[in-house]
Design brief:
mainly alpha; adenine transmembrane transporter activity; transmembrane helix; purine nucleoside transmembrane transporter activity; Growth Hormone, Chain: A; 2 domains
Length: 438
C-alpha cells in the first residue's frame, strides 16, 4: 500500500490498467487507460496475489522485528527501511520503460511487492514502538496519515483517467511520486531529534537512563519558563532532585524504575489479547473483500461517464475518504472504552459485509445471485464498511497502550503491529476463497 498496513496494495491497484496491458503482453505505450474490469489480468489473479504478497511479508517481518529491535538500533531500522523502499520504487519506475514478456514481468513485480512490504513491516513496527511511548493522540494522527495516503492514490487515479494520458505515462508518474514522498520522510525523520517535544518522549524509552529522563524534563520545563510560562512547584522539585548534592537521595528512587526495563511479552499479551483479537478480525473482514471483490463491482446503469468512473470513485476513493474519517474520529472520542464488551460485538457485526458485497452487481459470477444490483446499495455498504474499518482500527490501536503499565506500552505497540499484520494476511488469504465462491 501507500501506507503502513500493507505498503503496495492501494498504490498498485489504482493503476491496474497499466498492469493489465503489461500482463497481456501489449505495448503499454499504446492507447489510453481502459476502464473495463475484465481482461488478461485475471489469468494471473493480479488483485489477489498482490494483496496476499503484500500481507505475508508484513506478518513475517513484523514478527522478526520483535527480535531485531534488540540488536539493531532504531535509527538504522527506520532509515534503512526507507532507503530500501526508495530503491525498490525507483526500480519499479525504471521497469515501466523496459519491454518484457508478461511472465517475467509478473514475477519481478511480485518479488518487488514482497520486499517493499518487508521493509514496510520493519518500518511500521519501529514507528509504532516509538508511538507507544507517546500519548494516544499521536497514534490517532499517525493512523490518520496512513488513511490520507490511500486518498492521494485514488485521486491520482481519477486525474489520470480524466486526463486521458497513456498507461505508461500514468504508471511512471505513480512510481516517481512515492520516491519523492519517501525522500521527504527521510528528511523529516532526520529533523526529529532537533525537536524538544520529540527529545522528551524519546528520552523516556527504557534504553535511556532515568537520570537522563529527568534532565530532559528539566530542559523542557526551563524552556517553558523562557517562553513566559510561570514556574511551578514541579520545576523547583525537579531542580532540587538534579542537584549533585542531592544525588545520593535520588538513587534509591531509581531502583524501582530500573527493574521495569524488560516487560514480559506474555504478561502484556494477557492484558491486551481481546483488543488484539478485535484488530485481527477487523482487518480479516476488510482484506477478504477489499479490493478482491469490491474492485469487480460495476455500475448497473447504461455505459457512460458514470459507469466509467463508478468503481474508482465508489470503491477506491470513497473507501479511503471514509476510512480516513473513521480513523480521525478517535481524536475526539474513544467509544467503547477498553473495559467494554461492546467492542467485540461491533467487530463481529462487520462480517455481514462479506455476503453483502458478494451479492452486489458483479457480472463475473457462476454461483451466487445478484441481490443488490442498484448502485445505491454498493455505495451505502461501502460507506459503513470504510468508516467502521477506520474507526475500529484506530480505536483498538489507541486502547491497547491504555491497558498496560507505562513501561509496557512499547511492547504493546509492537504486539498490536504484529496482530495488525496477522489480520491483513488472514483477510488476503480468504479473498481467494470468496472470489472462487462467486
Amino acid at each position: 500500500m501507500a501506507r503502513g498496513d500493507g505498503c503496495l496494495t492501494l498504490l498498485l491497484l489504482p493503476i491496474w490498467q497499466y498492469f493489465q496491458g503489461r500482463l497481456a503482453g501489449a505495448n503499454s505505450t499504446a492507447g489510453t487507460l481502459s476502464t473495463n474490469h475484465t481482461g488478461p489480468t485475471d489469468t494471473f489473479n493480479f488483485n489477489n496475489w498482490v494483496t496476499l504478497l503484500s500481507q505475508l511479508p508484513l506478518l513475517l517481518f513484523t514478527l522478526l522485528n520483535s527480535f531485531l529491535y534488540q540488536c539493531i538500533p532504531e535509527a538504522v531500522r527506520i532509515l534503512g527501511s526507507l532507503l530500501g523502499i526508495l530503491l525498490l520504487f525507483a526500480l519499479t519506475a525504471a521497469l515501466v520503460k523496459v519491454d518484457m514478456s508478461p511472465g517475467p514481468f509478473f514475477s519481478i513485480t511480485m518479488v518487488s511487492v514482497w520486499f517493499i512490504n518487508s521493509f514496510c513491516a520493519v518500518l511500521q513496527g519501529s514507528l509504532f514502538g516509538q508511538l507507544g511511548t507517546m500519548p494516544s493522540t499521536y497514534s490517532t494522527l499517525f493512523l490518520s496519515g496512513q488513511g490520507l495516503a490511500g486518498i492521494f492514490a485514488a485521486l491520482a487515479m481519477l486525474m489520470s483517467m480524466a486526463s486521458g494520458v497513456d498507461a505508461q505515462t500514468s504508471a511512471l508518474g505513480y512510481f516517481i511520486t512515492p520516491c519523492v514522498g519517501i525522500l521527504m520522510s527521510i528528511v523529516c525523520y532526520l529533523s526529529l531529534p532537533h525537536l524538544e517535544f520529540a527529545r522528551y518522549y524519546l528520552a523516556k524509552k527504557p534504553s535511556r537512563s532515568p537520570t537522563h529522563e529527568l534532565e530532559t524534563k528539566a530542559e523542557l520545563l526551563q524552556a517553558d519558563e523562557k517562553n513566559g510560562i510561570p514556574s511551578s512547584p514541579q520545576v523547583a522539585t525537579l531542580t532540587l532532585d538534579l542537584d549533585p548534592e542531592k544525588e545520593p537521595e535520588l538513587e534509591p528512587e531509581l531502583d524501582e524504575p530500573q527493574k521495569l526495563e524488560k516487560p514480559s511479552v506474555f504478561i502484556v499479551f494477557q492484558k491486551i489479547w481481546l483488543t488484539a483479537l478485535c484488530l485481527v478480525l477487523v482487518f480479516t473482514v476488510t482484506l477478504s473483500v477489499f479490493p478482491a471483490i469490491t474492485a469487480m463491482v460495476t455500475s448497473s446503469t447504461s455505459p457512460g461517464k458514470w459507469s466509467q468512473f463508478f468503481n474508482p470513485i465508489c470503491c477506491f476513493l470513497l473507501f479511503n475518504v471514509m476510512d480516513w474519517l473513521g480513523r480521525s474520529l478517535t481524536s475526539y472520542f474513544l467509544w467503547p472504552d477498553e473495559d467494554s464488551r461492546l467492542l467485540p460485538l461491533l467487530v463481529c457485526l462487520r462480517f455481514l459485509f462479506v455476503p453483502l458485497f458478494m451479492l452486489c452487481h458483479v457480472p463475473e459470477r457462476a454461483r451466487l445471485p445478484i441481490l443488490f444490483p442498484q448502485d445505491a446499495y454498493f455505495i451505502t455498504f461501502m460507506l459503513l464498511f470504510a468508516v467502521s474499518n477506520g474507526y475500529l482500527v484506530s480505536l483498538t490501536m489507541c486502547l491497547a497502550p491504555r491497558q498496560v503499565l507505562p513501561h509496557e506500552r512499547e511492547v504493546a505497540g509492537a504486539l498490536m503491529t504484529f496482530f495488525l499484520a496477522l489480520g491483513l494476511s488472514c483477510g488476503a488469504s480468504l479473498s481467494f476463497l470468496f472470489k472462487a465462491l462467486l
